[in-house]
Amino acid sequence: MKTVREYAEPMAAHIDKSLLEAEGVPCEVLNENLLYASIFAGSNYAIQLVVADDDYDRALSILNAAVVEEPLEEPAETEEA
Q1: Which of 3, 33, 59, 74 is the most buried (most CB within 10 A)?
Q2: In what side-by-side order are the strands of the sheet with 2-7?
Q3: The pTM is what?
Q4: In the chain, domain spans
Q5: How far apart are CA 58 and CA 79, in angstroms?
């Protein structure tokens, strides 16, 4: 198993996990529960997204190609008659 990315928040890891799984790449999120233990123990556990060695390059390609949408602009104000 190889670590594709590390995260500070579980939500980001699970979003990327769903992107990979949608493309047929099996993956796992590790150390998710250790994050909360690290707050109290003073340790720094990174949440990891891991894939099989053979899927590593494909997983990187998928995650790097993922488009991050820009936030919607505020609607233009209209004058009322």
Answers
A1: 59
A2: 2-7, 47-51, 27-30
A3: 0.71
A4: 2-64
A5: 51
